[in-house]
Amino acid sequence: MSKRVVLAGGTGFIGQYFEKKYREEGYDIVIISRQEPHINWNDREGILEAVDGASLVINLAGKSVNCRYNERNKKEILNSRIDTTLIIGETIEKCEKPPALWINSSTATIYRHAEDRPMTEDHGEEGEGFSVNVGKRWEEVFFCFNLPSTRQAALRITIALGKDGGVIPVYQNLVKFGLGGKQGSGEQMFSWIHIEDLYRIVRFIEAREDLNGVFNCGSPNPVQNKELMRLLRQSMGRDFGMPATDWMLKAGAVVIRTEPELILKSRWVLPSRLLRAGFIFAYPTLKLALEEINSENMKNTNTA
Prior knowledge:
By secondary structure, the protein is of the alpha/beta class. Helices cover 42% and strands 15% of the residues.
């Protein structure tokens, strides 16, 4: 019999990638989502039927943080994470055959703005503000469940990079239109992970029954923003990019209805627990990741 994986919030950038990879490996996939034709979050019986007997539950649900942080959006961002986590935990409590592993998304934004030293699971310092509080509350709810038959792991995910979504199309457009210079001071750290490595981390934790708790999910080689933009231009065959000052980013964020924090906060995160456990990254450097992501662009440029 094929194994069943439940992807909660599985219609987004990461969820679609995970679905594709698991199907390629012969797994049955069940998706919980507000989008049809998947199991709706209001269908508690359908969720129980999916989760009971599943090998693995992965919760990726949550409203995108790429929006203005007004009161309505902040409420939706928090509740979309807390409510879905509660639903899954309460469902697992009712299972006759609970899943062996429940993996829940979390966020590396739980750490403070850091330009002085990297944040690890053991020695990281939590920050302050809305985004940090979302991460704290999210993990508190996740770990409040006592599930003796289900191992739990929270993934503090950094910026996920891949070909078909996430932040990459936004950065690519900046470079294409000559705006691919440093953003703000350019000194802020950019912690990231290739989406393939994120999938491989899930598989690694799945195979290692001794692993549970919180894991930083980011490359062991974060870079400064100015290096990010330089490597992105290089991978796209562009020599120049206009820089953007703090005030330009803050003004532009209002126009495109997002928050400048998403670019200006210094996220310096290292995956110390994964490295100690022996995980090997397929894309340890940003140069390798961007070469893979922009391989088609470079191929087209070279043959033009």
